[in-house]
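Cross-posted from the bioinformatics board.
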Amino acid sequence: MRYVAARLVALLPVLLGISVVTFALANLTPGDPARLILERGGTVPTPAQVDVLRQEMGLTGPVPVRYARWLGDALRGDLGRSYQSRRPVAEQLVRRLPVTLQVAAAGMLAGTLLALPLGVLAAVRRGGWADHAGRLLSLVGSAFPSFWIGLLLMWVFAVQLRLLPVAGWRGPAYVVLPMITLGLGMAGPLSRMVRATMLDVLGEDYVRTGRAKGLPEWRVLYVHALRNALPPVVSMLGLAFGHLLGGVVIIETVFGIPGMGRLAVEAIATRDYPTMQGIVLYLAVVYVAVNLVVDVVHQWLEPTLRPA
Amino acid sequence: MNRRTYFSRLALMAPFGVLAATAACAPPGSPDGQPGGDRAREAQAGSANELILGHPADSNVAELDAHTYDADSRLQLLVYEPLILKDADDFAKFHPALATKWEPSEGGTVWTLTLRPGVKFHDGTPFDARAVAFNVNRIMAQKTRFSSWQYVQTHKDISAVGEHTVRWAFTQPSAIFLEEISYTRPLRMVSPAAVSPTGDPSGTFSKTLGTGPWKLESSTPGQLVGFTRFEDYWGSKPAFSRLTFKLLPNANTRMNALRAGAVDGLVDAGRHDFGYAVLRSDIPALEQDKGFSVTSRVNTDVIFMYFNFYKGPTADLNVRRAVALGVDRDRLAQSLFPGMAVPANEGMFPAKTTKWSGAKLDQMRFKHDPAEAARLLDAAGWARGTGGTGGVRVKEGQPLNLSLLVNGADEEGKLVAQAVQSMLAPLGIGLSIKLLEGAARSEASKNRDFDLSMGQAGTRNVLSLAKGHYVPTTYFNTPETDRIIKEGLSLTDAAKIAEVNDQLATITTQQVGVVPLYYSKDYAVFRRGVSGFAFSPQPQELHLSGVTVAKRT
């Protein structure tokens, strides 16, 4: 508990740092939101018109002063209003974040469920069909872009076989294709890692001892060997989750899922600073929290890592 | 169980584990399965009483406030109507919409508008003179955002002089008043009850209420927008009662949705955000497929390149002219978009919309003439490079390397840029394509950090387009055009306005302010059973009157 509390306290400067970097990046990137809004009228605004709108939007004044104002509001839970939809940013994020997390978690689950048995099989049957299948999956998952795999799965299962819906987010059936798409991308490298760590562990004395004692093979593999092979895999899962959150942006667009990724793409294109900052902050919190969980699980699996 | 059997079973079980996890991850939400709790509908394509369209827009569809630039303009004509409509083929002509008569007086500084009687907003509020005044005052309350409109700049006051008559006064006459109020936005009629407090021009937008044939019923951000037929609509009512848009930002996904029967159709309404609703590469196959009907029209969007008129090699008229003559529009349109685009041989202001004489059109046309282009470059002192220049011309030791700004998200623009690059190379003009995303490109354009840039404009009345674009920060600007625009804007006589249009078009061509490339086309694809579709006279809007929907057989 003390470890978790210490990590949570350490989180505060991390979040502060992230907020500074996000604010600076958003505000120093070329592109003026006021100008973009005025350009949407189909004409080119004069500098005077842009200046007036910039003033109205609170975009004048030094960046540090604006940052301090934004941070003060953010600490009170007010992330500002979107320049685009004019809705409170927090309201949009609360609506969209769970969707993104569900897609990412589903993808991670699918990837793990595919990778673990495949990795173990590949290690046990080194050079056999499972090993080759794992290698092929790894190649496919890494070499083919996720949007392409997604469209291919959509074509087969939604257009040709009509088994699953094409796109949307309205029930369990809508999760299947996005989760498999994300999972395939993740399962390849993960299964190779499980295989490698399992191969290391299977050569250990205690595995031989377990077998010599007559333990059932599944017990040797899944209770003794896999548990000791898991710590590096769990660490990788934490990193993979961050990667998945990035990949979800594309998957959400392809499968018409109303998550944070689509919101982020639009916010960046329109220089919607409040939304951009809110999204990065939320995702940073999620990412850091997931890694905290991973570290805790890591310690649980590997007692040698626990503080004395 | 031996080890082999055990592992084989384990491998077989893995996919079931995935499916079980799928069920566990089912999207939560309201009882209808919609996240967010909106009243979004379970839309099912193929019905006889509902039309489901795939829509490329993402957000900002739900909050349809006509008096902003935020909402999706493509859906506006369904809900909000203008006072007058511009003729699709002759930009000097206007047709009655919610106003039946419009008359200038006092030297063009006052317009008296007679309104259509018997019109109601979706909430039952009568459409009358007070409602029009509310709409104008609401735009004036956001003057900063709309300051580029001439009627906003010169607005004096607006008053109701009867239940269905409005008097709108200005500080000076405007040659483009009718043109401006016919646009998709911002002057569309919104109910005074759409804001809170009701009727307050500074109030907050709270409800989507217009006079159009469709009422907004429900929306789920990023997913669906649902409309129902407005039974008290003053015009001809739609033949089906429900209209749903599925928001599918990915073009391939939209085509898959169409083929899988998840949507009844896809309709282009101009080239928005550098893309179309209907994926261009799929059109030939859809035209051959008996399960679908495909219709198209040339829209009024011109795709062009504009120059940095102020510095660098393109400040020289001869270089601009050489670029314009070096591009083969026919080859460009036919090779890149066979049958799907029309070469812009009529320039920025096509004859379809502006009734030019044949001689005038000929005068404004840039013919493909590489020999003349080479002669102009020679005359400008750009000599054929030798040695290590790769054939690029050189002047005073500087190679003729031009940069062309293209939006990184514009796939079509990238293709066009590459084609132009290959056409200019034999002339000794080096072209480097600079891909920047939208906001960065806007910034580079503002800072004049480019030589050429891709542009797109819905054609308008020449004077109106020039007013919006011939300003110092953009395409083209000379003291002469400034003077002509300024004087032209306060004209009221149609013949004199035509003269100004003519002058501006001539100067644009002579000075090679822009290089028109092609006019794009709009496509609409429907499943068999959907018929009667005709494109909207307003180029950027969807129009579904006359469409009938039969159940899918």
